[in-house]
Design brief:
147 residues, alpha/beta, Rossmann fold, four-stranded mixed sheet, two-stranded parallel ribbon, 48% helix, globular
Length: 147
Amino acid sequence: MSARTFLDTNVLVKLHDTSTPEKQALAKALVAEERKTGGPTVSPIILAEVFHALTKTRVTKGRQLTPIFTRAEAEAAVRLHARLEVKPVTADIYLASLKYLQEHRKLGSWDALHLATAVAHGCDRLITWDTEFPVGKTIDGVRIEEP
């Protein structure tokens, strides 16, 4: 059985964000490699976060930047990402995420939910650029990695 990888929101957003070309290239290579083995795993919440991130106004180095995409472009991107292996988030998964909030104080509630979703669906890796995740650590069988 091949490894199953859960992608955090920031990896999918970087596919479309030209402001950091090195991260964009890493994200593209990672997703392409994962697609060879059946595709990475995401949740509907990841898809919603991608839409939000692609359409929000950003502030970088004191400058206000326009959103990465219009709403129509972001919808097209989300529809594309919805072709990945999308696993449901249930009430039981949410309740399991509360354990991670207690055990890993730096994790935010959404990140804990992503981790619980990865665990519940048998993923062995969670790929993220989020500094709140304990990169390099394995939690309940899921290794947290940076691209």
